[in-house]
Amino acid sequence: MKYNFDEIIDRKNTDALNYDGWRQYIFKADKNARFDFKDDEFVRMWVADMDFATPPEILAAIKERLDKKILGYTKVYDDEYYHIFHNWCQRRYDWNIDTAEIVLSPGIIPALNRLVPLLTQQDESVLINTPSYTPFKQAGDYSYRRVICSDLLEQDNEYVIDFDDMETKLTDPSLNIKLFILSNPQNPTGKVWSEQELMRMGQLCLENDVWIISDEIHCDLLRNGISHIPMAKLFPDTDKIITCMAPSKTFNLAGNLMSHIFIKNEKIRKEWLRLYDEFLSPLSVAATKAAWSRCDEWLEQLKHYLDDNFRLVEKFTQEHFPDANFKIPDATYLAWINIEKYLPPQVDRQQLSLYFANQTGILLEGGNMFVSNGDGYIRINLACPRAVVQEGLERIRKALK
C-alpha cells in the first residue's frame, strides 16, 4: 500500500491541542486571546504530534473493536498483547524484553510524575541534560525535588555529553542526586546516543547509586541508516534502569494514552501497581496491538517522507541562513535550528514563539521553552505535509529577513 503523507487534514474543532489549544499551552493565555492572525491563518509546526493521518490499519482495528458493540471495563488479559510488543522490540532493537516487567501508563509524562516520588526522597535531587524536554524538569518540580542541569556541549556541529560535568555533579554529596532522567533519542536535539555514550552515562549513574529513567519515546523515528540502542539492553544485570516506550509518537497516537514502562525492580513495580493499577480504553488496546503488528510498512514510508522533509530544511537553511549550521538530526521529526545570528536585536529571546506568531503567523517553539541552554534556537515539527513545511519555512524566512 502507498500511503498519502501529502494529505491536508482539517483538525479544526476536534479539541486537538495542536489546533485548538495552542493559546493555553504555548502562551498560557485565555482561549479567546487575540493575536495578529486569525486561527485559520496560522501554520502549526509546534507540538510533537503529526499532521499525518493515523495509519489506516490502526483505524480499521478501532472500527473492528467498535463493531463488538460494548466498551466495558478493560485491562490487558490476553497474552497476545505482550507477545506482539515482545516481537516489536526483538525485530526493531534485537532486545529480548521481559514483558512481566511492564506496567502501563496513560502517557510518559504521567509516568515521570509518578516515578519521581517512588524513586527519590524529598531531600534528593534529579539530574537532566539541557536543553531538555520540559516535563523532565516539571516531574521534579511537582514533587518538590531539586532539579540539577548538565548542559550538553556542541562540538563540530554535534551535541555531546559533558561527562566531566556529569561526574562532578553525580559525585557531589551536597547535590545528593539520586535520579537521572535521560532522553534517548534526545529531545529537542534529535541526537541518538552511541553505545559508548550510553555505557559511560550508565556506569556513572550506577557507580554512584543513581536511578536512571530512559525516555525512549522517539526511538522508532530514526533517520534511515541510524540505529537505536535501549539503555537497559546494555545493563541487563541492574534493576535501577526504567525504560519508557510508547506507540504515540511513532504512529500519531498521542490521544491513545497507552505508554509502556519497564520496571525491573520488583519493589518499585509492586508499589506502582498498588497505586496506579487502572482500567484501559478498549479502543486504545486495539489500536496499540495494530500499531506493533500491522504498521511496519507505514513506518518505513513515513521515515522516507520525513527524511525528505529534513533535506528540504537543510537546503533552505544553507541557502538563506548558512550560519544556522543546521544538521539533520539522527531521530525524531523535530528540527532544532540556531537562528541567533539572524534575530533582530530588539527581539526578546525569551519570547521567540510570540515573535513568530505575531510576525508571520507560524506557531513554533522557542529554545527558551526547553529549560535552559537553548537560547537562540527554535524547534519546528516536520511531521506534516510537504506543502505545510514549505509554507512554514517561507514564513520563518520572512520573519528573519
Any overview of this molecule?
The chain is of the alpha/beta class and 401 residues long. It contains 14 helices and 14 strands. The protein has helices at 17-20, 22-27, 56-66, 79-93, 108-119, 134-142, 163-170, 195-207, 231-234, 266-276, 282-294, 296-320, 352-360, 386-400, and strands spanning 43-44, 102-105, 125-130, 146-151, 153-155, 158-160, 177-183, 211-215, 241-245, 259-263, 334-338, 362-363, 365-366, 377-381. The strands form four sheets. A seven-stranded mixed β-sheet has the order 2-10-9-8-7-3-4, sandwiched between helices. Strands 11-14-13 form a three-stranded antiparallel β-sheet, with no helix packed on it. Helix 6 links the parallel strand 3 and strand 4 (146-151). Helix 3 (56-66) packs antiparallel against helix 11 (282-294), helix 4 (79-93) packs parallel to helix 11 (282-294) and helix 13 packs across helix 14. The chain starts with 16 loop residues before the first helix and ends with a helix.
**Portion in helices:** 25-40%
- Average pLDDT, rounded to a whole number, is 97
Separation of termini? 42 Å
| DSSP summary: helix tally | 14
Radius of gyration based on Cα positions: 21 Å
Query: What is the number of beta strands?
Result: 14
SS content category: alpha/beta
Order of strands, main sheet, comes to 2-10-9-8-7-3-4
Form type: globular
Main beta-sheet strand count, sense and barrel state: 7 strands, mixed
Q: Please report which band the strand proportion falls in: under 5%, 5-15%, 15-25%, 25-35%, 35-45% or over 45%.
A: 5-15%
| Low-confidence parts | none
Give, in order, the helices and strands.
Answer: HHEHHEHEHEEEHEHEHEEHHHEHEEEH
